[in-house]
Write a structure and sequence with these properties.
374 residues; 12% strand; porphyrin biosynthesis; 15 helices; binds coproporphyrinogen I; uroporphyrinogen decarboxylase activity; TIM Barrel; alpha/beta; 7-stranded parallel β-sheet; decarboxylase; single chain
Length: 374
């Protein structure tokens, strides 16, 4: 067995890790996707004169921005301040993150020659991220987990093929359907970049990882299973031996939750459109269909989610009513044996104009509720 150098902390009382593993946490873990970012005045200040991507390669800055929401909101996890396009940029793909728009790729990838010209991954290219992770780990308490992440191959492929954010992902789907062999070749070229980036973060000591397949919800389940799942499964399988919980998340993925769980994950992220008890039922049913020998307990996964980010604009009593509903749905799923635990989160990222105090109050309210039963 190859033993890797690891800086991972041994955390025996971190609520997020307990919930992910099906143990009873000391309190209901909560963190928010995009918790670092424009909702925080301290983030706007630090980013005033520095580009998004530049800040992702400055260890001091990425560590400071990662810690800002942890200090302010007392969330149970930090998520590395980075972006899904960072490994592409690090490897030498000509791209930028354009304010108000998102990642823009200078030369979209559409032909066999474009695909073959994509660079490989060398861990030295993300040395700054590794250094930043070391600084973050030095600041977190042993109850706070650090989540590393990467974009999943479908979502990354969409940015590469479309050349930027896309409303319909039409060129991506066109390649998938008209030239499936070329599609597989592209996915296989992206795979080492994603796996390498995740491995670098894991070796640097992150406590959990999230694979963001943000745009997978644009696919039918059939296309997802045929053209995407094998590639995401290969990536998740490649890090299975690391022993860190794997979280798999996408938006609008109600129809894909079973398939996304089957890709190999301890925690399934659910967007706000589907109640968590229904999501859990779909996940456990799909996993049993895939592997009927599975006992019921083995087909349950932990859930993450799923407050609609827009509700944070609706005032405290509306937020509390929705939080209560979501906790009750999660607890029902756990009671029924369809889920193993619950990590509270939004159903997608914090919207930029969200009032930071509304986030803090929501975290406090979740923490004041009992942790999920077992
Ligand atoms: O200047 C800025 O502040 C730009 C806004 C911004 C930020 C704060 C971008 C551009 N990326 C980020 C950081 C980021 N990106 C994080 C930070 C950690 C945290 O959550 O606090 C994470 C996890 C991401 C991951 C990411 N980037 C995803 C997956 C998550 C999701 O939101 O679905 C995606 C799809 C991206 C692409 C991206 N980067 C930035 C934007 C505006 C976008 C989306 C563009 C689009 O709609 O296609």
């Amino acid at each position: 067995m190859i033993r890797r150098m690891t800086n991972r902390r041994v955390l025996t009382d971190a609520p997020l890790l307990d919930a992910a593993a099906g143990r009873t946490p000391s309190r209901r873990p909560v963190w928010f996707m995009r918790q670092a970012g424009r909702s925080l005045p301290e983030y706007r200040e630090i980013r005033a004169n520095i580009g998004m991507l530049e800040s992702c390669f400055r260890p001091d800055l990425l560590a400071e921005i990662t810690m800002q929401p942890v200090r302010r909101h007392d969330v149970d996890a930090a998520i590395l301040f980075s972006d899904i396009v960072v490994p592409l940029k690090a490897a030498g793909v000509d791209l930028d993150i354009v304010p108000g728009r998102g990642p823009v790729v200078a030369h979209p990838v559409r032909t066999a020659a474009d695909i073959d010209a994509l660079p490989g991954f060398d861990p030295d290219q993300v040395a700054a991220v590794v250094e930043g992770i070391g600084a973050i780990l030095g600041e977190l308490t042993d109850r706070q987990a650090l989540i590393g992440f990467a974009g999943a191959p479908f979502t990354l492929a969409s940015y590469l093929i479309e050349g930027g954010p896309s409303r319909n992902h039409e060129r991506t789907k066109a390649l998938m359907h008209s030239e499936p062999a070329l599609w597989d070749r592209l996915m296989s070229r992206i795979d080492p970049l994603i796996t390498g980036f995740l491995r670098a973060q894991i070796d640097a000591g992150v406590d959990a990882v999230q694979l963001f397949d943000s745009w997978a919800g644009f696919l039918t389940e059939r296309d997802y299973r045929r053209h995407v799942l094998p590639h995401s499964a290969r990536i998740l399988g490649a890090i299975a031996d690391a022993g860190v919980p794997r979280i798999h998340f996408g938006v609008g993925t109600g129809e894909l939750l079973g398939a996304m769980a089957a890709a190999g994950t301890e925690v399934v992220g659910v967007d706000w459109r589907m109640p968590l008890d229904i999501a859990a039922r779909r996940i456990s049913a799909a996993l049993q269909d895939d592997d009927p020998a599975d006992g019921r307990g083995d087909s349950a996964r932990a859930l993450q989610g799923n407050l609609d980010p827009a509700i944070l604009f609706a005032g405290e009593s509306a937020v509390q009513a929705e939080v209560r509903r979501i906790l009750a749905e999660a607890d029902r799923a756990i009671d029924r044996g369809d889920a193993r635990g619950h990590i509270f989160n939004l159903g997608h990222g914090v919207l930029p104009d969200t009032d930071a105090d509304a986030i803090t109050r929501t975290v406090d309210f979740v923490h004041a509720q009992p942790p999920a039963p077992r």
